[in-house]
From TrEMBL:
InterPro entries reported for this sequence: Transposase_mutator
GO biological process: DNA transposition
Highest taxon above the source species: Bacteria
Record keywords: DNA recombination, DNA-binding, Transposable element, Transposition
Pfam family for this entry, one: Transposase_mut
Protein's job: Required for the transposition of the insertion element.
Name of the protein in question: Mutator family transposase
Family: Belongs to the transposase mutator family.
GO molecular function, one term: transposase activity
Entry keyword annotation includes DNA-binding: yes
Length: 212
């Protein structure tokens, strides 16, 4: 979850910075008409959520030093909302209305559905890049973990989202994919990952199927 939290958070802050540079007003705390300026690299900001899990966020810097994202509380090192924000984006199917409601509740800011749509589209594009990334040919260990979320279909029910995690021969942990119950064909990383596992790491595929 830390991976996706950082992923989405950076993507949303980045698009907010783009709006700032182009003079578009996204959040109410930004000036009505931003003066012309340019990007000036990045700086790193450390945050912790309500469970004291640490996140390092890469934040865009502008030459005028004027960009301040409403998604990143000023001088605040503990944020309780990262997981809630990611759940809304991941589980609600990127519903612009739902994400806007969560942002309003968590950040006390008003943001249009059109801007939410632009911001969440960045997240979708980043997810697609992540899904299509090449995987290693060999992992020393592959195992499953699960996170339980309330998912709304006909009614709200708790369901598990399984996380496939691989340990490389060098001991580095890598998230391979996320999927919902119902078979490996619904693996969130897509069918390409399933075919890859069947061909290249078939025993690990069987192990994951049995554990699921």
């Amino acid at each position: 979850m830390e991976f996706l939290s950082t992923f989405f958070y950076e993507a949303m802050i980045r698009i907010s910075s783009t709006f700032y540079l182009t003079g578009k007003r996204v959040f109410r705390d930004l000036p009505e008409n931003n003066p012309p300026t340019k990007g000036n690299g990045f700086y790193f900001r450390d945050l912790k959520d309500s469970f004291w899990r640490a996140y390092t966020i890469r934040v865009p810097r502008t030459r005028d030093n004027g960009f301040k994202s409403a998604l990143l509380p000023y001088r605040k090192r503990i944020t309780e909302d990262l997981d809630a924000l990611i759940r809304a984006m991941l589980i609600s199917g990127m519903s612009t209305r739902k994400i806007a409601e969560v942002l309003k509740e968590l950040y006390e800011i008003k943001i249009s559905y059109a801007n939410i749509s632009r911001i969440s589209q960045v997240g979708i594009e980043e997810i697609q890049k992540w899904r299509s990334r090449p995987l290693m040919e060999e992992y020393a260990v592959v195992f499953l973990d699960a996170m339980v979320f309330p998912i709304k279909r006909d009614r709200v029910e708790n369901e598990s989202i399984y996380v496939a995690i691989g340990i490389t021969p060098e001991g580095r942990r890598e998230i391979l994919g996320y999927y919902l119950p119902g078979g490996m064909e619904v693996l969130i990383t897509g069918g390409k990952f399933c075919r890859y596992k069947e061909k290249e790491v078939s025993n690990r595929f069987i192990l994951l199927s049995l554990m699921a």
